[in-house]
Amino acid sequence: MPEVSRFFGMIILIYYNDHPPPHFHVRYGEQRALIDMHTLTILEGSLQPRALGLIVEWAFMHKSELLKDWELARRQEPLEKIAPLE
User: Fold this and answer.
1) With a threshold of 0.85, does the pTM exceed it?
2) Which of 8, 5, 19 is nearest to 65 (CA)?
3) So where are the chain's domains?
């Protein structure tokens, strides 16, 4: 499973061989979203405003780590875990 972080019931994933632009997937209960790593906007799906706010806060703090994991995934290398939002 390409899970890179988990917090407050939200699961953050980066899939191998995924399409550009660099993005990550969020699962939160029945909600699903793809978040652009550069703009931190939703590319696809939806999240409750509070959940989206937490995801954007976390992603802003870990943008370089997310981009590094994106590159690792593109090279089929193991992903590195990213600290959760506390």
Assistant:
1) yes
2) 5
3) 3-74
Determine the Cα–Cα distance for residues 68 and 79; give it in Å rounded to an integer: 9
| Residues in the chain, total | 86
81 Cβ contact partners less than 8 Å away, ≥ 6 residues apart: 4, 5
pLDDT digits (tens, 9 = 90+) for 13-60: 999 989 999 999 999 999 999 999 999 999 999 999 999 999 999 999
Q: Where are the alpha helices (DSSP H) in 20-83?
A: 49-61, 63-74
Does 5 have pLDDT greater than 90? yes
H or E stretch covering 49: helix 49-61
pLDDT value of position 1: 65
Max CA distance (Å), the chain = 34
